[in-house]
Amino acid sequence: MITDIQKILIIGAGGQIGVELTAKLSEMYGSSNVVASDLKGASAFPNNPFEILDALDKKALFEIVKKHGITHVYHLAAMLSATGEQNPMFAWKLNMESLFNVLELAKEKHISRIFWPSSIAVFGPTTPTVGTPQYTIMEPSTVYGISKQAGERWCEWYFNKHNVDVRSIRYPGLIGWKSAPGGGTTDYAVHIFHEALKTGTYECFLNENTVLPMMHMEDAIKATIEIMHAPSEQIKIRSSYNLSGISFSPKEIANEIKKHIPGFSISYKPDFRQAIADSWPKSIVDKEAREHWGWSATYDIPKLVENMLDNLKKK
Ligand code: NAD
Ligand code: SER
Questions:
Q1: Which one of 99, 115, 171, 178 would you pick to mutate in the ligand 1 pocket, going by the greatest count of ligand atoms within 8 A of its CB?
Q2: pTM listed for this prediction
Q3: Which of 3, 262, 17 has the alpha carbon at shortest distance from 117?
Q4: Is 56 near ligand 1, meaning CB less than 6 Å away?
Q5: CB of 220 closer than 8 Å to CB of 299
Q6: What is the CATH number of domain 175-213+246-288+299-314?
């Protein structure tokens, strides 16, 4: 266990990333030093202090920060790409205002460090799709992507103007067995494993050749911990870092699953999420994250598929 003093608040702890990040940080710092918060769901965190918190309520956030002596905030609450397109005004409000609430608390020196995730959704249809670099054309076409891009600019602004120590990663689509995804375009890459084991078939909402950047959740958690623990001078990008894991299409991941479940079959019925996926990169170059704070991924496609199937079978 790490013994430096950190009191951590996770906002949106009940979500796909939050559940795993809360567990990892609790291992590192002790459960009593990691406060989980969400709109509901205390029962998911029997060992952690838990607070009901609407991230849009700045006063309630401030009170929780004071009550627990919070130093570090991981702000995960957001509306993701698919649900965001169905509720654009609220997606904008939630994604932007909740970020301002956290950034303002840091500006006022109530907290000392923030993690806020961005996404591959900051890129758009005019971005080069293969080997997308850190600095390139960024014209996102979803409300979610627009909010993440604006959020990145604000993070950099708060760092430059107010010395707010905010750190961010552009996560690719995340795949883990411990928690369910919450309304994204890359969610198929989690659902496919559950359905392969349960029914042996899966109807995919993206077409077979839609290649997207993806990552095993363990790698995403590793990156999150690493960027938050790197010395400040190594974090040279204060908007958000590109982060690369693996890239595959539904057909490629289905073929890898078939190596373990020979009878597995997949069909394709693209819906509105196809247009979102088509606007995103196929692969990401993360040279800066590697050079600045030593990032590297550990999962390739065979290892990810084996890990997902083995763990879901046990679960
Ligand atoms: P999720 O939808 O699974 O979880 C979000 C959590 O936030 C939920 O538990 C929800 O109840 C909570 N929440 C929603 N509104 C809230 C509010 N007003 N106040 C407090 N909590 C609220 O999302 P996730 O996949 O865990 O993503 C977390 C963050 O990572 C988001 O910012 C998302 O944009 C980003 N991200 C995720 C992925 C991915 O593949 N999962 C990829 C890129 C970026
Ligand atoms: N996985 C996320 C989504 O599909 C990307 O940010 O919305």
A1: 171
A2: 0.98
A3: 17
A4: yes
A5: no
A6: 3.90.25
Class at the top of the CATH hierarchy for domain 8-173+214-242: alpha beta
Q: Which ligand has the nearest atom to the CA of 240?
A: 1
* Alpha-carbon span 190 to 38, nearest angstrom: 22
Say whether 144 is catalytic.
Answer: yes
The DSSP 8-state label assigned to residue 42 in this structure reads G
55 lines ligand 1 (CB under 6 A): yes
pLDDT in tens, 55-88: 999 999 999 999 999 999 999 999 999 999 999 9
Full strand arrangement of the beta sheet holding 173-175:
173-175, 212-216, 246-248
Q: Is the shortest distance between the CB of 308 and ligand 1 below 6 Å?
A: no
Distance of CA 277 from the midpoint of ligand 2 (Å) = 9
Q: Rounded to an integer, what distance in angstroms lies between the CA atom of residue 10 and that of residue 151?
A: 18
Q: Catalytic residue among 29, 74, 144, 202, which?
A: 144
Domain-by-domain residue ranges, the chain? 8-173+214-242, 175-213+246-288+299-314
